[in-house]
Amino acid sequence: MRKVIIVIFCILPSIGMAQSEGYEAFIYTSEELTNEINSGMEEERGLLGDLFDAGIQSVKKIGLGYASSLATVGTDVLKSLLTRNAQLKQHWEETVRAENVFTTTITTVQGINNFYKEKSYSGALDPKGLYFDGIGCLRKEGTDTVFYISCHIDRSKINRILDHSKFELTIDTLIISPFHSNLPNSSSDIPFSFEERKDFVFSMNIKITSSWINELTQLYKDQELGEFAITIPVNQDSLDSKGFLRYVRKENKSSNYAISGESFIVPRSFMGYRDATGNYKNCWGTGEYQLSIELKETCDITEEYRSSWKQDWKRRKANYPKEGFFSKCWHTITNQSWDDSSKTWVISTQKTSSEPTSLK
């Protein structure tokens, strides 16, 4: 089994908080899928090997995920927080509610060229050489893996490819730690605590789209082929002594965590050609497709934390940055350049701000 790695840079502004490392999203590939489809046999997979191999090869930098949901408190809300008034608790609730949600989206900048390993001379949905085998995502802090998810084509339902031109995914490996998550999603350096937060949920939504042309030269552009949804609730009892939920699916067993949804296999695009003797023949390509992945973390607050909101407000007020900081207008700048040495497109994104406006 091989992997094509899509490196995702997730850059946060420096605002006095512990910055998250970038996410790496990658695509699993397999040269044995055609045989499995034909034979219906279940592939034996070294699941732990997926984790240690993840991220070794960085083949093509084509996408980026950006922490666009960083909770920012509006000018009016801050004015209320900094000047005591009758709506203080309501604004505290609104601020904490915003901190309880983090989202980032990873999208491919350009199409991924090979859903199949080789061209076909038989038809647009010829499964011969099917190469795509799943999707994974990884985040590290230094050399430590703090988040990892590995999803492969569900071998127990592989006959759906022949019966309905569709496939499903299953979770093989999972590592999640609320203590290393992006929650609370705050400009202040507030650590995650089960004394203050509860009902931590990780969710992931994956969409696959494609464009192709058929034999009648009809163009199908940006067609959605399928969508997958993952929801993983994490409570304190499910964590090990180091604060991690760790799961590895046993071979030939169903996963403990479900993935809802399905996707059609990618249609091959048509192209006619002439062979060496000048005879015109039909040919179908290797299947270009695009991915969009939304990662989301949510939680709620405990009743004990809610009841002590006044003490928390005092703590926040004492730690707020100087006046005018939050009134900055953040802009995202994306640059794309070709790296001739590595023969890859390099995508970089950074956040920049306009001049601050003082709070009155």
The fraction of residues assigned to DSSP E strands is 35-45%
From the alpha carbons, calculate the radius of gyration and give it in angstroms. Answer: 24 Å
Mean pLDDT: 77
SSE series: EEHHEHHEEEHEEEEEEEEEHHEE
Distance between the termini: 60 Å
Residue share in helix? 10-25%
Number of helices: 7
Number of DSSP-assigned strands? 17
Globally, the shape reads elongated
Unreliable stretches (pLDDT < 50, length at least 5) are 3-20, 41-75, 322-338, 342-360
Strand order of the largest sheet: 3-4-15-9-10-12-7
**SSE-based structural type:** alpha+beta
Q: Mind summarizing the main beta sheet? A: 7 strands, antiparallel
3D architecture notes:
By secondary structure, this protein is of the alpha+beta class. The chain has helices spanning 33-39, 47-53, 75-82, 88-99, 160-164, 303-307, 309-319; strands at residues 2-7, 23-29, 63-66, 101-108, 132-141, 144-153, 166-167, 169-176, 197-213, 219-234, 245-248, 259-264, 270-274, 280-284, 289-301, 330-339, 344-353. A hairpin with a 4-residue loop joins strand 16 (330-339) and strand 17.
